[in-house]
Amino acid sequence: MTAVPERTWQPDYPLDLAGLLAPLRRGKGDPTLRFDPPAGTCWRAATTEGGPATMALRRSSDGTVHATAWGPGAQIMLDGLPALLGAHDDDSGFVAHHPLVAEARRRMPGLRLGTSGRVWDVLLPAVLEQKVTGVEARRSFRELCRRFGTPAPGPAGEMGLRVPPTPDAVRAIPDWEWHRAGVDSARRRALLAAAAVAHRLERAVTLGGSGGRELLRRVPGIGVWTAAEVAQRAWGDPDAVSVGDFHIPSVVGWALVGRPLDDAGMLAVLAPYAPQRQRAVRYVEASGFSRPRFGPRYAAKDYRAI
């Protein structure tokens, strides 16, 4: 019997396992990431350059992280464990210019920016989230994973976890299946364009920062917002603000200056935090602050019915 690869890692900082991995989770029904609170285990399925893989993470009482992995890409996932859990994150020089940010930072010393190390797995759901509600995007992501992804290697496969569709699998999806998954033509074109050059886009992780984001934006259909969403997750970019987001400018505005803002206003308020503006946004999001609601929410549009 082949031994299952394992790794034990001891961080030298407070670790918020669920908080670190939360940005990678696309809703409670995400088929690629699952938290099992009773067992204290997090399961994550992903593609890697070596093939599909699953990793199970659990933290012991002394803070040690125990990881077990399965599949052709198992060792790659284990090698990337420290980066995934924020070991490469550097918040030196970060100053909280607003009381809410300062309080969030005080309460959550374990909140760091993790690095998945892979563009494709975060690019796919990011494109699906373009200009639609979260409900629509998460539904499309679930359906594409379940129909065109593969069962997660190891015991997670029996639990229903799925590895996201590979670039080749996405390029092979028939037109009518895109419609069935609720993906309109604009997002479909963007995903097909990205899938055609997916191997080149992985270099964005090495470039990092604005260079990595610029590489992603060379793909038709990938703009500032999508590139920032990928950068935040793939290489833990501390300055990649999601300009163009439907909610974030308003939330940041209400949280930091007590009024709604547009993108320009948000960037002006966040300017003192450069080059760690996204870190400030992350603290706002993690603080639990909720903006006032004065009107009806944006109604979801089901593209499957069109």
TrEMBL record:
Q: Which UniProt keywords apply?
A: DNA damage, DNA repair
Instruction: Decide whether keyword Flavoprotein is in the record.
Output: no
Record has Kinase as a keyword: no
| PANTHER family membership | DNA GLYCOSYLASE, DNA-3-METHYLADENINE GLYCOSYLASE
Question: Which organism is the protein's source?
Answer: Pseudonocardia eucalypti
Name of the featured protein = DNA-3-methyladenine glycosylase
